[in-house]
Amino acid sequence: MGSVQMPAGFQTRAPGPASARYTGGYVFSDRPMYAAVDLGSNSFRLHIGEAVAGQIHIVRTARDPIRLAAGLGPDNMLSQEAMDTAVRCLRDFSAILRQHRLDAVRVVATNTLRVARNADLLVPRLEEAIGYPVEIISGEEEGRLIYMGVARALGRPDERRLVIDIGGGSTEIISGAGDAIGLVESFSIGTHPHSATYFPGGHISADAFETAVNAARARVEDVADQYRAAGWEGVYGSSGTIRAISEVITRNGIGDGAMSLPSLQALRERLVDLGHVDAFDLPGVKRERVIVMAGGLAILIGVMQELGVNTMSAINAGVRLGVLSDLELRANRLDRRDQAIQDCMRRFGIDAGRAARTATIAAKLFDRLGPQDETVKPHLLRASMLHEVGLSVSHTGAHKHAAYIVEHADLPGFTAREQRLMSAIVLGQKGNLRKVREALAVPDLAKAVLALRLAAVFMHARIDAEADALRLRMKGRIEIETPRGWLRQHPTVASWFEKEAAAWGEVGVNLQVVQAV
Hints:
The chain starts with 20 loop residues before the first strand and ends with a strand. The strands form 4 sheets. Strands 5-4-3-6-7 form a 5-stranded mixed sheet, sandwiched between helices. It has a 5-stranded mixed sheet with strand order 10-9-8-11-12, with helices on both faces. A 3-stranded mixed sheet has the order 13-14-15. The chain is 47% helix and 16% strand. Helix 1 runs parallel beside helix 3 (119-130), helix 14 packs across helix 16 and helix 14 runs parallel beside helix 18. By secondary structure, it is α/β, with parallel strands linked by helices.
């Protein structure tokens, strides 16, 4: 299909030039400054970084080992105590953020909030505490951000590499070359559930450890051949647990003193001989983290054995550096989400010309409706580019198929919330509006739905340019004002307007078409 051209105005806006930054007695750098907050299953972490000569220089960090995953009950409900602790942590982080003049802040949540059944109760409290949206990212997106952070830290553009990250609730395995990401998989095995399942009460035995290792191997065996085929020149472990294991091995000369399978097996034997995590007193890991290390060690051994990895390097990079790098890319108009849209269009064979025409018309109509929330427009544009993706499934109910694909497709850079928002706009592109009634309750989303519906009509009627002659208003009711005689020139559009009036009327919105005097 060739390269996909995005309509004018598609990319997100870059920040303006930095000014002298004096706020509340603080003096700030004129360099772009970004903040990344990672709501992990073991710890909540914050990084503030400056973009300096193509690098991200970390100027402030904070960490709170709140063990959020430990607050999950058997029913995957977070306890009230765990939720209150999380909120208190983000209030502390908010105080740190307020001390800096920041160009952009992104807060991402990982596995525990992905699986918590009451996450919808906690997220609004977290957002109020920190003052920014909380994005619950998919495991695959978490993996991509991890890889971006590692690639940024290494700065080796030609190296083929494998990255393993073992978190509190999930494990991500990513392969790529330089900045390019190849394979990404996220597995729901993490240090907390693995430790709780196989080492209950901190008790460790040889049989339990063997079972824990084999359980990890079983989870990754289906994809092992794909990773081996991709190959690698370097293998890196990016999580705090892997760094803790590396620290213990190095400081205590365990095995060969490196992050090799023999060293990991030697550390395993040390834990088995002790029999309980409380008996472990080697420097390099805090006593309360030994149980976490034990679960992580079992997973790491299993993953390395199954993938055929003999040695690796622990690296202090991951999600947070990836988020900072992603924010810098967005600021420089290199948004991964735009590339994801283009890749999706190619994958499903979307007519790029029709998509771009629809997006251009929708953008003009949306601007004419006077939206208040500038963040909605990029979602409308991206939804417009994908509005016909459902045709790859069936022409019957294509808008419903499209909405499902947009919500559930793996789109790098997007959060689940963003995909649901775009899906609602796509679903509302035609037919009855009762199915998107919830979205219509948000004024700017209602305007986005109207803009895409009309844009699709004008694109099909091939009157792109003449849409400029219309005046639109939407406040309580919808009014479409056409030039005198315009509807006689476009009788098919007049028929569509009648259908639109009926559809909007079903959801209690009056739509009128009037002629200019």
